[in-house]
Amino acid sequence: MHRVFLSLLIVCATACHNNTADDEPTAVPAPSELAITSLEKVEDEDSVLEAHEDIDWKEIEVFQFSKALIDNKVPLHTTLPRFTAALGEADSLVEPNWEYLCGTQFEDNFQYFYKDGSRFELYKDTLYCSEYKLTPGHTVVHAGVTFSSNTTWADVKKHFPRAVQQAENGGYTDMITLRDADVEDNDSSVRFYFENGKLVRIVYFVPC
């Protein structure tokens, strides 16, 4: 009888222990902890979105193409006598293909004037650059800043951070687009082209 009583006592004790373990509450984060975690995630997502937002065109930096100087001597928009006096005669003069001509600075008959890989439009004695190639030894100076074939993407980002950011937002690291004038609705723009991280061409872009 004594053994039966002890057996019953052991069974009851075991059952009570199991019930106590099952009834213990599971630890869960406090509401404030959940709120903080969620807020941190939202802030991280917002910062990513802001980095990839489009930049308004009127916020893009201006590069006044016509006033930029070749080798700090002659403007990109100049006269034939002034250009040849400083930089020499054309390497070649080429008649445009009028059938496929589009986005030019002159509407009247003109010739393409080539010098050291750069292209200009020549009408009478007026010479407008349409594409300047940055060859070794030659530079373009704008607002006191000198651009050359050694100018890097990082260098340009210091001077035109918004234009570079806009390009990077689109996944580009080989071209940036700048405004040509302070007038917002101006059709023309200026494009910097890069190869292997170095500036190679500055183009005056006129849409068709």
TrEMBL record:
Protein name: Uncharacterized protein
Organism: Chitinophaga varians
